[in-house]
Design brief:
Number of strands: 4
Shape: globular
CATH architecture: 2-Layer Sandwich
Largest sheet: 4 strands, mixed
Structural class: alpha+beta
CATH topology: Nonspecific Lipid-transfer Protein, Chain A
Low-confidence stretches: 1-16, 165-182
Distance between the termini: 63 Å
Length: 182
């Protein structure tokens, strides 16, 4: 077996990092408390918690508040997971330091060194892009997104599809979360 094939198999066998539902729940409750809302009483599933963290981070932005670090981390990891699940491939590396990076988009796979197609963005701008609150062209033009390589344009994949958490809403408004007082 050649070395390149061995490296490719090793990468393919690496386990995906699992999100801890207790950590997500704590991050969500902290963000909700900062918004003056009651703790989360919705589904304890990782996907639901990640979507709710994304929604809560957007609510904080709409309220003029800085998102809580752990809620922002959860929102970034959730939306990066959505991107890699929805746009499978290994042609583009999307980096959102310090929280995560994924490979996505079909095309030539990259396994060593700096990939030819890289997108790097700060956490808050990534969540805004994923939710459709910030346009790709505007983000690139302003320098909020650094994209290099012929396949690094993610405009065809953003905003990410709404996963039931209304994260794609372009209208800032009070975000209703399960468990909110009526």
């Amino acid at each position: 077996m050649c070395r390149k094939q061995q490296e490719s198999e090793k990468i393919a066998q690496m386990p995906v990092r699992k999100l801890d539902p207790q950590r997500l729940h704590a991050a969500l409750d902290t963000q909700l408390a900062a918004l003056g809302q009651v703790p989360w009483t919705g589904s304890p599933a990782v996907g639901a918690l990640g979507a709710a963290c994304t929604k809560a981070v957007l609510a904080a932005v709409d309220a003029g508040l800085a998102p809580q670090r752990e809620a922002l981390r959860a929102a970034v990891l959730h939306t990066l997971g959505q991107l890699s699940d929805g746009v499978p491939g290994r042609a583009v590396e999307v980096r959102v330091p310090p929280f995560g990076a994924v490979q996505a988009v079909a095309g030539p796979a990259h396994t060593r060194g700096t990939p030819p197609n890289v997108v790097e963005v700060d956490p808050l701008n990534w969540v805004l892009l994923a939710a459709g609150r910030l346009g790709w062209a505007c983000a690139v033009a302003s320098g909020s997104v650094r994209a290099s390589g012929p396949r690094s344009d993610l405009s065809a994949y953003l905003p990410l599809p709404d996963d039931g958490a209304d994260v794609g809403s372009s209208q800032p408004e009070r975000i209703e979360l399960p468990g909110d007082p009526a």
